[in-house]
Target: glycine hydroxymethyltransferase
Amino acid sequence: DHGLSEADPEVRAIIDKEKQRQFRHLELIASENFTSRAVMEAVGSHLTNKYSEGLPGKRYYGGNEYIDELEILCQQRALAAFHLDGKKWGVNVQPLSGSPANFEVYTAILNPHDRIMGLDLPHGGHLSHGFMTSKRRVSGTSIYFESMPYRLDESSGATSLLRCIGLVKDECVDMFVADSKFALLSHTGLVDYDMLEKTANLFRPKLIIAGASAYPRDFDYPRMRKIADAVGAFLMMDMAHISGLVAASVVADPFEYCDIVTTTTHKGLGDVARQTDSVGKEKKVFCWEPTGNSTSLRGPRGGMIFFKKDPVLGVDLESAINNAVFPGLQGGPHNHTIGGLTVCLKHAQSPEFKTYQNEVVSNCRALASRLIELGYKLVSGGSDNHLVLVDLRPLGLDGARVEKILEMASITLNKNSVPGDKSALVPGGIRIGTPAMTTRGFTEKDFISTADFIHEGVQIAREAKQSVSGSKLQEFMKFVASPDFSLMDRVSD
Ligand code: PLP
Model:
């Protein structure tokens, strides 16, 4: 049996190129992180060979003695990582990823065409929360269920004030907001809970979904619980983006208020790797290096569903969700992924993990402050978590152009729609996340430099748009390739 280099040099070469790209680039995609070598070992192990449809102790195939042991350990660690009492909460660790996990919840507790409300995609929500346009039901969620997304508050502080003192009526506010020039000036950028409440009272959803892909603030779970209770709806949180922050208690705890919590396992569950050098000085090491201790926690691509064990609204969530995962929507679990997940959950309660998650947030605040200092407009005016959303429209720019220019300079982030965008095809902003580079040892100072690099890229995008000259871009790219661009060198030593 040959190793990859011998068996398939073509694939080996592609993997090597991708590894180098990950090594060289500033990875600022808010939903990405770097797994540890230990996780990759488990993911590339013999676990991949085994079929194990069913749950521990109740499999449809023989030979699952050790797979049972692994899945039970994974469940125990998942509950411990999120500080949950196993008598009150259960977890299914088999979802293949975040979107399947969400759809499994929907099919578990809803009938076809039941009503749901999630945050609208152009306002930061995820496709799987029911995205649809006026022309098309885009997501499977909106095809099989009736979706009425809620949105962010786009009104300016001034309009809110006028509304408070009764000088304008809601229809006038809607008119103002419909005028994108007005929306451009200023908006709160926070979830419009008043509107959610009003709409929920009319729409009577059976499920309300908290959680987002591009929302820089915490959700108001007590308020959402109240709204859900008033209309007899389940409340679910999709904590995919912030699961690490939840585990480290750095943000509000959704488990206190929600009936069901879903997550991916490859985004926020990171932990910076630290090693002590020969003279006893602590240094941060690049994630692929084997660490002297085992404090790393960076997950494989997968999903989990946590559910309350007591019936909710007359539904036994445990059996409904387990049955929705298998046989409802999946077959054999990906045991190699469950292996990697079990490894990654081991240290979620360690002090190092908490330190890392605090650093993710403080780094993000430093990045946000510097961007504000440089004159950028951030959606909601800042960030409480791991990401910022920059509104580029006041500069006459769109996210796609800036994403492309920064990619040429080895800075990877993504274009993102921002509230008030006229078209989803030309998103007006960029999303910048701190988890991955914090894993690689970036500090607040590094993120201030990162903001400055992004600013340079944006200036070039503006110049390129005005067709002034391409020479500045070349200068910038030369600088990035030069030894002066030392951020990368420093973290890989
Ligand atoms: N939920 C949220 C909030 C997400 O941001 C994402 C992906 O970015 C998902 C679910 C979907 O996860 P996956 O891509 O693993 O299906």
Observations:
- The chain is about 45% helix and 10% strand.
